[in-house]
Amino acid sequence: MSNDIYSTYHLYPPPQLSEIKTTVVYPATEKHLQKYLRQDAYLICETGEDYKNITLPFIQSQSFSIQWVYNILEKKAEADRIIHENPDSSNGFILIPDFKWNQKQLDDLYLIAICHRRGIKSLRDLTAEHLPLLRNILQEGKEAILKRFGVAGSQLRIYLHYQPSYFHLHVHFTALSYDAPGCSVERAHLLSDVIDNLELDPQYYQKRTLTFALRADEALLKKFQEAGKA
Amino acid sequence: MSNDIYSTYHLYPPPQLSEIKTTVVYPATEKHLQKYLRQDAYLICETGEDYKNITLPFIQSQSFSIQWVYNILEKKAEADRIIHENPDSSNGFILIPDFKWNQKQLDDLYLIAICHRRGIKSLRDLTAEHLPLLRNILQEGKEAILKRFGVAGSQLRIYLHYQPSYFHLHVHFTALSYDAPGCSVERAHLLSDVIDNLELDPQYYQKRTLTFALRADEALLKKFQEAGKA
């Protein structure tokens, strides 16, 4: 059974695997149940203005707890699972296996890099200022995975989610051969593309229209509908 | 059994479906067999220069036949399957159900828009000059699918592949709820993003590094390896 403070990890769409795996979410709240029920999804085209007027106020109005992230960063939890750490408070991060990966085979390799710096909620907050952090994650993350698991960078899909599952910047590392949940074009953004875009325009992610899917029951969808944008 | 001139349609990775479907490829060449065998894949980061020096000469050296595409555009084949046509020779296109979709249910809706204009090999050839064509495909494609199948644009994933399966510009329309093959971030490019990028920089796709996966047996991988780029 999973500790509820990690429930965010377990709330991803269930992965499609050739062997049956189960994830026990306990205690399961109404929100967990809704997440697992199949529902219609709608594509949202969020402009920079939509983010400021709709999404950001919504995020701020919610009490999303990310204490479990801080517990990892402060070594109060999961310290024995850390694969790599760059301890720099501005440009450092912790690399840790995702809970969906049992580490027994490389087919569904899945790790997460969590940045030390606080307050970067998502892709939308990134500017050229964050390039050293992002380059560290890309370079050191690949090196650490090669060293520990023998998987080369050319066999890794390295990306951010937008919308993310939790609002503290993190980067996904999955095996390229693994059809990982959330790696489709309407949710995943390759870290190498993010770096190139910020080099092209430091305000790229403040201005750019970002497209993502929301399920019919998600409160953010209602906000977009109320604003006449969905 | 499929006609060999359409084999390109059938050479996609087989879709993951809850019901069993089969695609018979006959006659099956060595190339077909290789495509269906599970193989390691490698991520290539193709710069604009790499495209000019490695990929473009490779494409030009191959005798990829796209006569089957011209047959559709000239109504010599498939004319009864056309869902929508804009006949303009510069900015028009034909919208047709993909062969992987049997049209019996909307869960795995899959259509292809094929542009009338010849000589646009892929995303790499697109410039601001092609914006009217791309906007027509986005707008009219959504309208036609709503009218014929009752599926709204907000429930469609509309994207290009890079690398594509064949070198005549085409756009994929799949149901958002369908985990379609080839919609992951390392292959799919949302049409709305492509339009935004060309509006931002008319030469975006000539200059930009594009990331894609190649299987171990693909001849293009060998070309990148020989150039010391993979």
Automatic annotation (TrEMBL), chains A, B:
- Asked if the record carries the keyword Ribonucleoprotein, the reply is no
- What's one GO-annotated cellular component? P-body
- Keywords of the record: Cytoplasm, Hydrolase, Nucleus, Phosphoprotein
Q: Which SUPFAM superfamilies match?
A: HIT-like, mRNA decapping enzyme DcpS N-terminal domain
GO molecular function annotation: 5'-(N(7)-methyl 5'-triphosphoguanosine)-[mRNA] diphosphatase activity; RNA 7-methylguanosine cap binding
Q: Which PANTHER family does the annotation name? A: HISTIDINE TRIAD HIT PROTEIN MEMBER, M7GPPPX DIPHOSPHATASE
- This chain's protein is named m7GpppX diphosphatase
Ranked from the top, the taxonomy reads: Eukaryota, Metazoa, Chordata, Craniata, Vertebrata
